[in-house]
Amino acid sequence: MSQIPTRHQPRKRFGQHFLHDPQVIAHIMAAIRPKSGEHLVEIGPGLGALTRPLLQAVGELDVVELDRDLVEPLHAQCAGLGTLRIHQADALKFDFAKLRVEDGPRLRVVGNLPYNISTPLLFHLLAQAEHLHDLHFMLQQEVVARMAAGPGEEAYGRLSVMLQYRCQVEALFTVGPGAFQPPPKVRSAVVRLVPRETLAVAVRDEQQFAEVVRRAFAQRRKTLRNSLRGLLESAQIESAGVNPVARPETLDLAAFAALSNAVITEPA
């Protein structure tokens, strides 16, 4: 049954779409497989539809919720189920690393993320990847497609490259609008991200790597020779083992790493 109290009206400014479908909740729980002793953190718990089973499974739980009006309803929904620590804060500015106990397990982060902050929040979290064991998120289906896409696929782009550099990305299943109240206008999907113990490719300067990827995809129809002008000349691109007239959506992570490292190795 739905745990949504009618007195709380979802707020557009917070991108609130509250999950309530018990089958979807069970499917998410089966994907996460939470166990006692693990350190779970939920972003955007809303009215507690996923918070309750998570707390029951692990006994204690940290949640980060921006809407202060949901703090008391969350406590009421979860009374007697375990230790719930509510951090009333903006997840985009929250220091997740501080939740990890010294020498304790890395964090398992879960959330039904507002669509309007999903991409910046992913990058914010991955900047703290050393403290993360894995992440399970409900996101807009189109965003998950971009996250998981490989070279040559239409959805492949900057987000694909930057996330797959740091994580293994696995699209799990889709969720229809009816699972939420109010129903969003788009389909959603659940994705699993597991930070890599060893990064996917060897990059000498991560900021330069990010800039090469950004420049390459800024105008997707341009060839690398044009989009990277000012960073690398055609001969330098070719020396890195990449075709200067290739388009960015055809390149794998190794090719982007080679281009980035070519910029670094050029004399000032």
Task: Compute the number of strand runs.
Answer: 9
What count of domains describes the coordinates? 2
Q: What characteristic shape results from the CA principal axes?
A: elongated
CATH H-level superfamily title of the largest domain: Vaccinia Virus protein VP39
CATH topology of the largest domain: Rossmann fold
Strand order of the largest sheet: 4-3-2-5-6-9-7
Query: What is the tally of helical segments?
Result: 10
Mean pLDDT: 91
Amount of helix? 25-40%
- Gyration radius (Cα, Å) is 21 Å
Ranges where pLDDT stays below 50 over 5 or more residues in a row are 1-6, 10-15
CATH architecture title of the largest domain: 3-Layer(aba) Sandwich
Key attributes of the depicted protein:
2 domains; 10 helices; 268 residues; Rossmann fold; alpha/beta
Question: In words, what does this structure look like?
Answer:
- The protein is an alpha/beta fold and 268 residues long.
- It folds into two domains: 12-195, Rossmann fold, CATH 3.40.50; 206-265, rRNA adenine dimethylase, C-terminal domain (Helicase, Ruva Protein, domain 3, Orthogonal Bundle), CATH 1.10.8.
- Helix content is 33%, strand content 20%.
- The protein contains ten helices and nine strands.
- The strands form two sheets. It has a seven-stranded mixed sheet, sandwiched between helices. Strands 1-8 form a two-stranded antiparallel ribbon.
- It is elongated, with a radius of gyration of 21 Å.
- Residues 1-6 and 10-15 have low confidence and may be disordered.
